[in-house]
Amino acid sequence: MDDIKGIKDTEGTEKLRFCRLCDIFKEIPRDINAYAQRLYDLLDAKDKAGDELIKERLEICSACDRNSQGTCLACGCYCIVRSMKKTVHCPHKKW
Ligand code: SF4
């Protein structure tokens, strides 16, 4: 665990962050698109970002240097999962 770096909070304390949705499902998705669709289907309609906003966000993620094969290295989330909820934003305020 010593080689795993977390994110420093505003007081400089390093903390590991985990995706709460991943924790709920306790699974490593093999098909991220199917996994994302399942999660999206579980969201309340009012919380869904919608196709256009998701597409817009993922275009920004695709050009971001913190995107590692679809995983955001800033927060540890799958970019597609992070983009799906209307009120969730990029941890670096890019969207
Ligand atoms: S969520 Fe933000 S920081 Fe993470 S990959 Fe997308 S644009 Fe980059």
Structural class: mainly alpha
Order of strands across the main sheet: 1-2
The arrangement of helices and strands along the chain is EEHHHEEH
The percent of residues in helical segments reads: 25-40%
Total number of strands = 4
Shape: globular
Beta-strand fraction estimate: 5-15%
Secondary structure blueprint with pairings:
Blueprint: E1 7-8, E2 14-15, H1 20-25, H2 32-42, H3 51-62, E3 67-68, E4 71-72, H4 79-83
Antiparallel strand pairs: 1-2, 3-4
Residues 60-61, 64, 66-67, 72, 74, 79, 82, 90-92, 94 line the site of iron/sulfur cluster.
Please give a structural write-up.
Helices cover 36% and strands 8% of the residues. The protein is built from four helices and four strands, in the order E-E-H-H-H-E-E-H. It has helices at residues 20-25, 32-42, 51-62, 79-83, and strands spanning 7-8, 14-15, 67-68, 71-72. The strands form two sheets. A two-stranded antiparallel ribbon has the order 1-2. It has a two-stranded antiparallel ribbon with strand order 3-4. It is globular, with a radius of gyration of 14 Å.
